[in-house]
């Protein structure tokens, strides 16, 4: 009897050890409720991020007969208005080669930044009801705002490229790389500023008004309505260097380099455009890190202040 019972006892002991090990493994995988890894957690839950982006994009065109066609109509109308009102009436078509393309490509970059930055600043307040009811990485809302702005900018980029192709633009690896780098700079910069001002805006709603001023100034602080040569002629060299260090200026000029520069026989890119493009990318990454740090520090007050 003893000999027969021993194996059963051993088997039961081994089974208990296995169950205990499984429970220990489960305990190790459990995390503190409300804890997350910031931006890494946002992209780990990318399915939820995609749902938020898809919902907001669908809401934008809900009840619209033409839907996405409006995204292409607007830049086309802008091109015609720029060509006639500014190019013909004000004579800029004679002073700047392919001025409507130059202007529309610059506005495309600035519009992407302004929409991503402004919506990112408001994103937490706009989703206050959701934030107070359930837990999810709160960084998801400013990042979703940037991605929604990117989706809305795609049609305008397509229109700019289509018009440039019509006028003889021939894409190259350098031009496509410049366009991609410009969009990455804006995406990272807008995300960082959206995190920073969005977290402050929860407690101090004045931040939103301050952002509106930044957005208003952004289009004039970069070579969108004018060429960089006009700035270089009237400001000291040190101030022109600061002007080029503006990440939006670098992004706009990179986009010009990609789309407009090959078309203009008299066009010249801003000096050291690739160097300042890389500096702008580093500056944008620093802004993203600072925005994340401030966001995490203020996150604990969101539910209370909302």
TrEMBL record:
What parts of the sequence cross the membrane? 69-92, 98-117, 141-167, 173-197, 209-226, 273-295
User: What is the membrane topology here?
Assistant: Multi-pass membrane protein
Matching InterPro entries: ABC2_TM (IPR013525), ABC2_TM_bact-type (IPR047817)
> Where, subcellularly, is it found?
Cell inner membrane; Cell membrane
Q: Where is the ABC transmembrane type-2 domain?
A: 66-298
Keyword Cell membrane in annotation: yes
**Alphabetical keyword list:** Cell inner membrane, Cell membrane, Membrane, Transmembrane, Transmembrane helix, Transport
Family of this protein: Belongs to the ABC-2 integral membrane protein family.
Record protein name field? Transport permease protein
């Amino acid at each position: 009897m003893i000999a027969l019972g021993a194996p059963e006892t051993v088997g039961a002991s081994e089974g208990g050890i296995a169950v205990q090990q499984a429970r220990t493994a489960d305990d190790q995988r459990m995390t503190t409720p409300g804890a997350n890894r910031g931006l890494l957690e946002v992209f780990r839950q990318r399915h939820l991020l995609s749902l938020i982006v898809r919902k907001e994009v669908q809401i934008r065109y809900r009840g619209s007969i033409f839907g996405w066609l409006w995204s292409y109509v607007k830049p086309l109308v802008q091109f015609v208005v720029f060509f006639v009102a500014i190019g013909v009436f004000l004579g800029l078509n004679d002073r700047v080669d392919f001025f409507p393309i130059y202007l529309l490509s610059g506005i495309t970059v600035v519009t992407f930044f302004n929409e991503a930055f402004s919506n990112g600043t408001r994103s937490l307040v706009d989703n206050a009801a959701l934030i107070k009811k359930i837990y999810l990485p709160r960084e998801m809302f400013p990042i979703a705002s940037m991605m929604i702005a990117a989706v809305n900018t795609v049609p305008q980029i397509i229109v700019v490229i289509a018009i440039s192709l019509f006028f003889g633009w021939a894409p190259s690896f350098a031009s496509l790389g410049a366009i991609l780098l410009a969009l990455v700079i804006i995406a990272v910069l807008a995300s960082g500023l959206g995190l920073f001002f969005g977290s402050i805006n929860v407690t101090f709603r004045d931040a939103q008004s301050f952002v509106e001023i930044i957005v208003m100034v952004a289009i004039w602080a970069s070579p969108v309505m004018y060429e960089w040569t006009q700035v270089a002629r009237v400001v000291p060299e040190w101030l022109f260097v600061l002007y080029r260090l503006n990440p939006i200026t670098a992004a706009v000029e990179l986009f010009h380099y990609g789309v407009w520069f090959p078309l203009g026989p008299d066009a010249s890119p801003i000096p050291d455009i690739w160097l300042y493009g890389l500096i702008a990318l580093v500056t944008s990454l620093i802004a993203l890190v600072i925005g994340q740090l401030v966001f995490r520090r203020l996150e604990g007050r969101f539910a209370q202040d909302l």
